[in-house]
Amino acid sequence: MKFDSRRSNVRALNGMVATSQPLAAMAGLRMLMSGGSAVDAAVAAAATLNVVEPFSTGVGGDVFALVWSAEARKLYALNASGRSSSDADADALRSAGYDSIPDNSPYAVTVPGAVSGWQALLDRFGNMEMSDVLRPAIDYAQNGYPVSEMVSFQWAGAESRLKQNHAGEELLMRGRAPRAGEVMAMPTLADTLRTIAYGGSDAFYRGHTAERITAFVQERGGWLSAEDMAAHTPSWEEPITTNYRGVDVWQCPPNNQGVNVLLALNIAEGFDIGAMGAQSADRHHHLIETARLALTDGMYHITDPAHMRADIGMLTSKWYAGERRKSIHGDRAMDDVPVGLRRQDGDTVYITCIDGAGNACSLINSVFSDFGTGLVVPGTGIALHSRGASFSLDPTHPNVLAPNKRPFHTLIPGMATRDGELWLSYGVMGTVQQAQGQIQVLSNLIDFGMSPQEALDSPRFSYRPLEGEVGLEPRIADNIADDLRGRGHRIVITDSHPLYFGGGQVIARDAETGALTGGSEPRNDGCAVGW
Q1: What is the DSSP string of 125-148?
Q2: Which residues contact 348 (CB under 8 A, 6 or more apart)?
Q3: What distance, in Å, lies between the first and last C-alpha atoms of the chain?
Q4: Is 266 left (phi over 0), alpha (psi -120 to 50) or beta?
């Protein structure tokens, strides 16, 4: 699947939604046009994406969100990620011969936090009831929707994952992935969404639905219990921030990788990126090296904050970034990237919404791998996420599996303010690409003054830490790739997967006029809509 963007920015005054599927974007816009808030729109879009892009997201996954209140002129961070079971046992897995947690196993199932996140958002910032915002999703799940080429392509790639258990058939069409243009319905998922719509989050975490989920996991040897489900609560937290060239960039605090974005921006601020040129080898080199440092630190240190050994304030400080920046050389790539502060005690959807009053919601909802674990709870249409696979089994690692612990999370919704006013609600989905994707998009917007759509259209790189290589898009200039190889980077030119380079959405707000300008990812079915 290739792309060749010819998109313009979308502009509106009364509200805007941007996400990876047009039907979901329109579901959110319907809420705004009916008097709903940015949060109502975000939850409606998230629920609809569970139906129209089910391999990426759903009630079986987790949620992180940032909310901007125009009245309070303040940001709020929501962590609705689930914890491991109280019976989780890393020793048992090591004794069974595992050196990591398989992402298609019941051991990778932590408590799904998404529904609790939807409820918490609506309770605090919504104008509508859960039954209102889930109506579009229920309709598409019950009556069907035509599948796009991109969705069909990604669904087919995950088909074998759903065939692990019989209930995977609930998310297939006559035993296979739906093809482009076919109308796909998921009636068991519609029933689950209906239960949530009229019973709220309690109907998911207690009672029959919770019992079905936990019995299914335990039948396969997993630990998740009804008590684990009932004990789950989301948490409102203070966002973390740094200032990059006059712009305050905001992230959720750990257990997600928002720290990586702030650390990388602090490192990059020490270089004159704007003078290097948007499509230059110098800019690529310095941002790649910056991303390598930030990702290395994040992948080692970030876990449930109750178990972190490194101080978050230190990791996001200008001083620490300056120390890490000393490792970067303009003429050559680092041979290896040691972790700083070592001894100090891919599938996802992103949604951004801004309403006419200037309130905003930046939300990411994910099941991690394609259809999560691929384990579908019979009779529910719920694909259980695989976030527990992010835990380490190394007993010395900060992110080692332990009972009642939140794992390292890739999900990072973003916002940016200028002079105390909302400027951007944005995000880039795609596991390890999320942080480095945000860095590149923010640099496009801040260092080079690009519009939201231009910032998303621009070619991106993707540093892959496990492979030790850097992916570039085929449309990048040959001389840039050759120059980077000459500096010691292992360069791979690839278009093997449409979202290898992530999928972003950006809405910018003009503080004086209230005008909204939206851009959406050209590498998938991204759509920004406004009124």
Answers
A1: H-SS-HHHHTHHHHHHHHH-EEPP
A2: 56, 57, 364, 365, 366, 368, 410, 411, 429, 430, 431, 434
A3: 31
A4: alpha
Closest to 170 measured CA to CA, from 383, 367, 385, 381: 381
pLDDT, one tens digit for every residue, the chain (531 residues): 444 556 899 999 999 999 999 999 999 999 999 999 999 999 999 999 999 999 999 999 999 999 999 999 999 999 999 999 999 999 999 999 999 999 999 999 999 999 999 999 999 999 999 999 999 999 999 999 999 999 999 999 999 999 988 999 999 999 999 999 999 999 999 999 999 999 999 999 999 999 999 999 999 999 999 999 999 999 999 999 999 999 999 999 999 999 999 999 999 999 999 999 999 999 999 999 999 999 999 888 889 988 888 888 989 999 999 999 999 999 999 987 766 543 332 568 899 999 999 999 999 999 999 999 999 999 999 999 999 999 999 999 989 999 999 999 888 999 999 999 999 999 998 878 899 999 999 999 999 999 999 999 999 999 988 888 999 999 888 899 999 999 999 999 998 776 789 999 999 999 999 999 999 999 989 999 999
Domain spans of the chain, in order of start: 16-236+348-390, 238-347+424-530
Q: Do 498 and 347 contact (CB within 8 A), yes or no?
A: no
**Which runs of consecutive H residues, i.e. helices, occur in 302-351?**
312-315, 318-325
The tokens describing 383, both together, are 């694909």
The whole-model pTM stands at 0.95
- CATH number for the 238-347+424-530 domain, one of 1.10.246.130, 3.40.50.1010, 1.10.357.10, 3.60.40.10? 1.10.246.130
Catalytic residue numbers?
348
**DSSP state letters, 174-185:** TTBPPPTT-EE-
Cα atoms in the 13 Å half-sphere on the side-chain side of 270: 21
Strands 469-472 and 491-493: parallel
C-alpha angle 504/102/429, rounded to 5°?
5
Q: Do residues 236 and 120 touch, judged by C-beta distance below 8 A?
A: yes
In single-letter form, the type of residue at position 148 comes to S
The CB density around residue 440, as the number of other CB atoms within 10 Å, is 28
| 323 C-beta neighbours (distance < 10 Å), count | 12
Is-contact 143 407, C-beta < 8 A? no
B/e letters for 278-303, b = 16+ CB within 10 Å, e = fewer, are: bebbbbbbbbbbbbbbbbbbbbbbbb
Q: Which amino acid is at 59?
A: V
DSSP label of 385: P
State the Cα–Cα distance between residues 20 and 23, nearest whole angstrom. 9
Nearest to 28 by CA among 52, 6, 9, 7: 52
